[in-house]
C-alpha cells in the first residue's frame, strides 16, 4: 500500500528500528525492493533522486513506482530523494509521490529554512511528507549521487541546537543529518559521531535520516539506529550488487538482455533483505 513517510517513520522512531530507503532507477530495482519488503514483511521507502533523472526521467519512474507501491502487500513510501530544485519537488508531488526531500543544504541557513518551509507547506497540502537536510552529507569520489567531496567533513556536521531551530521553523517531517557518512563507496572506513546523533535526537522531535549507507558495518547501522536514526538510505550497494549479478550471469554472447533480468532482480532483493534484517524492520509492516 502507498503511504507517506510519517506512517512508517513515526512507528520506527518509537520502536527504535530503521526503515531503509532504496532508490529504484529502473523497474528491476523496484521489483527487487518490493519483493524483499514483502518477503520480510517490512515497510520500505523507495524512490529516485534528481541526479538520476538522466537515466530515467521522473515522470517515467512514477509510471512504475506508484502502481507498484499501491499493489504491494506492505507499506511503501514513494519518495523523491535529493530534490535539488523546486521544479522537481513540485513535479514529484503532482505525479503522486508521497514524500520528497528538498535538499537546500548547500545554501545559507536562512535560505535553507525559507525554501524548505515553503516546500513543506506545499507538500503537506498534497498529504505528502518532507525531509530537509541540515549540515551537509558529502560524496565519496566517484559517487553516483554527485561529486561534493569535502576536505574536512566534520566542518559540515549538523549542529544539534541549530537542528532544533530548523525543524521548528520549517515544519519538516524528517531531518537528514551529517554525522560522518558520505554517499558512494568509502575509501577509508567512515567514523560516525554517535553522540551527535543521540544529542540531535534529544533536541529535535522528528525522525532522523542517515544518508550514505553503503559500506557501513552492521554494527555502525545498529548503533546509529540505537542512537536515534529512523531512516537509512542505501543505493551504491544495491547498484553494484546488480551489476555483479549481471556479470556472473553473462556467460556468452548467445545471451540477451532479458536473460540477465531474473538474476538482477534477485540480487537487489537479497541485498535489500540483508539490510532490512540489520535495520530491524522485518515483521514491522
Ligand atoms: P549510498 O549510495 O552511499 O548508499 O547513499 C545513498 C543515499 O544516501 C541516497 O540519498
UniProtKB/TrEMBL annotation:
Binding of Zn(2+) 1: at which residues? 82, 183, 211
Which residues are noted in the entry as dihydroxyacetone phosphate-binding?
184, 212-214, 233-236
Molecular function via GO: tagatose-bisphosphate aldolase activity; zinc ion binding
Instruction: Tell me the domain of life.
Output: Bacteria
The record's active-site residues are 81
Provide the alphabetized UniProt keywords. Answer: Metal-binding, Zinc
Q: What cofactor requirement does the entry state?
A: Zn(2+)
Q: Does the keyword Amino-acid biosynthesis apply?
A: no
Which SUPFAM superfamilies does the annotation name? Aldolase (SSF51569)
Keyword Kinase assigned:
no
Q: Which residues bind Zn(2+) 2?
A: 103, 133
- Per its record, how is this protein called by name? Class II fructose-bisphosphate aldolase
| Organism this protein belongs to | Paenibacillus oralis
Amino acid at each position: 500500500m502507498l503511504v507517506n513517510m510519517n506512517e512508517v517513520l513515526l512507528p520506527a522512531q518509537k520502536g527504535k528500528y530503521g526503515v531503509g530507503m532504496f532508490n529504484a532507477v529502473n523497474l528491476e530495482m523496484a521489483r527487487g525492493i518490493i519483493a524483499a519488503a514483502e518477503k520480510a514483511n517490512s515497510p520500505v521507502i523507495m524512490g529516485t533522486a534528481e541526479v538520476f533523472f538522466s537515466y530515467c526521467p521522473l515522470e517515467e519512474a512514477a509510471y512504475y513506482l506508484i502502481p507498484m507501491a499501491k499493489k504491494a502487500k506492505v507499506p511503501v513510501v514513494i519518495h523523491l530523494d535529493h530534490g535539488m530544485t523546486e521544479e522537481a519537488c513540485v513535479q514529484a508531488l503532482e505525479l503522486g509521490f508521497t514524500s520528497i526531500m528538498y535538499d537546500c543544504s548547500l545554501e545559507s541557513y536562512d535560505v535553507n529554512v525559507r525554501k524548505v518551509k515553503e516546500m513543506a507547506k506545499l507538500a503537506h497540502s498534497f498529504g505528502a511528507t518532507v525531509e530537509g537536510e541540515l549540515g551537509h552529507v558529502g560524496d565519496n569520489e566517484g559517487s553516483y549521487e554527485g561529486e561534493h567531496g569535502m576536505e574536512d567533513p566534520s566542518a559540515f556536521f549538523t549542529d544539534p541546537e541549530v537542528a532544533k531551530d530548523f525543524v521548528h521553523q520549517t515544519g519538516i517531517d524528517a531531518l537528514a543529518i551529517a554525522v560522518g557518512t558520505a554517499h558512494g563507496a568509502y575509501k577509508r572506513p567512515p567514523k560516525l559521531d554517535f553522540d551527535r546523533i543521540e544529542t540531535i535526537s534529544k533536541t529535535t522531535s522528528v525522525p532522523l535520516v542517515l544518508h550514505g549507507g553503503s559500506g557501513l558495518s552492521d554494527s555502525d547501522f545498529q548503533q546509529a539506529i540505537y542512537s536515534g536514526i529512523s531512516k537509512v538510505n542505501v543505493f551504491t550497494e544495491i547498484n553494484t550488487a546488480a551489476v555483479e549479478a549481471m556479470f556472473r550471469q553473462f556467460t556468452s554472447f548467445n545471451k540477451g538482455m532479458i536473460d540477465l533480468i531474473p538474476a538482477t532482480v534477485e540480487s537487489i532483493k537479497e541485498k535489500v533483505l540483508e539490510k532490512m534484517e540489520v535495520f530491524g524492520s522485518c515483521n514491522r509492516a
